[in-house]
Each structure stands twice: as C-alpha cells, then as structure tokens.
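Obj: model holo form, ligand = uracil.
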Amino acid sequence: MDFPNCTVVDHPLVKHKLTVMRRTDTSTASFRALLEEISLMLGYEALRDLKLREEEIETPMARTTGWALDGKKLVLVPILRAGQGILDGLLQLVPSARVGHIGLYRDPESLGAVEYYYRVPANLEDRDVIVCDPMLATGNSAVAALQRVKRSRPGSLRFVCLLACPEGLTNLREHHPDVRVFTAAIDEKLDSHGYILPGLGDAGDRLFGTK
Ligand code: URA
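Output (holo structure tokens):
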C-alpha cells in the first residue's frame, strides 16, 4: 500500500534498533534508550526543512558566513504518556524547543480518544509544531490531538511516531491530509483490540515498566 502522507525513515540503524525494541525480552531501560535513539533519527528527517538564516561569524582563523536556525522556536507536543519517550530524543536535537502536552486516553469500548489535559505554549501562530506518539494505531488519538492543536493555528504541523499501520495512516490522512507523518516502519495491521501487529505491545507500559 502507498501512503503519500508518510515518510518512513529507512535506515539500517533504525531497522536494527526497532527490531530490538520489538523483542519481548528487551528490558525497560533498553526500550527507553532505543526509543530516544530512534527519535533522534526520526527528528532528523522531520526537521529537514527548518528555516535558516545566514550569520556572520569569526572562527579562530577567519571571518566567514554560517547558518543559524531562523524563526520562532519549534514546539514539540507529546501525547501523554508514551509520547514522552519520543520527546526526549527530539529535545536532544533541538534543546531550545518549547514543549506542550496533550493528555488523551483511549476509550476501551469505542477506541475513541478522550482528552483530559491540554497545555501548550502561547502564540502557536507561525510556529512549527510536531505532535508525537510512538504508536499510530487506530489513529484516533493522533487525529484528536492534531485537531486540538490546529485550533491554536500553528504555522505548520507534523506527526512523528515510531510505528504506524495502514488503518492509522488512512484515518490520519482522511482527517488531516496536510499533516506529514514520519515513522520508523509501517506494520501489517491492527488487531481487534486496536493493537498494532506485529508491533511491540503497549508502548507506554514498555517505556515506563508498568506492565
Ligand atoms: N498503543 C500501543 O501502545 N500499542 C499498540 O500496538 C497500539 C496502541
């Protein structure tokens, strides 16, 4: 299947690290560290078009022209709680980014997203915003989070996840055709409980050791 709204970050290191993350016997500490490492690589691709301005600088040898990030500070919005794992990697890339949070839980019956918390930096206008969550499963949480953030009129909006599946990508594209998704892999399908197959289980439980 073709997903024109999605960029799969296709790299041997991403594939290797993701495979270790999928394994049942991978420890919480390793899972956490690997999610952070992969998030760095996802962020590298997701931020390819960051705007730059030229800057005159002096090296110990000469005057020259370099580059500095231009424009307002980037805003990162993890979906609580598992999105925090991706946030840590993205913040290593862009330590000056501002951070918002959105709390959504999945209604176990309807699998719909219910919002319980929302706090983002003021004035999202003209800012590039990245919403992140490891698993794009049904896509309901991502769709709801993006809808909520769009009410603050961000300059641009992207979605970064570790794993996606066809159902989630289709749902997200139907509701937010303007939002590009960056992921490490697109898995086969969802099971009847809304879990990604083959997936890696519950990303929040594996990240925080709450299983
Ligand atoms: N959330 C998870 O943590 N894992 C899945 O497979 C689907 C949703």
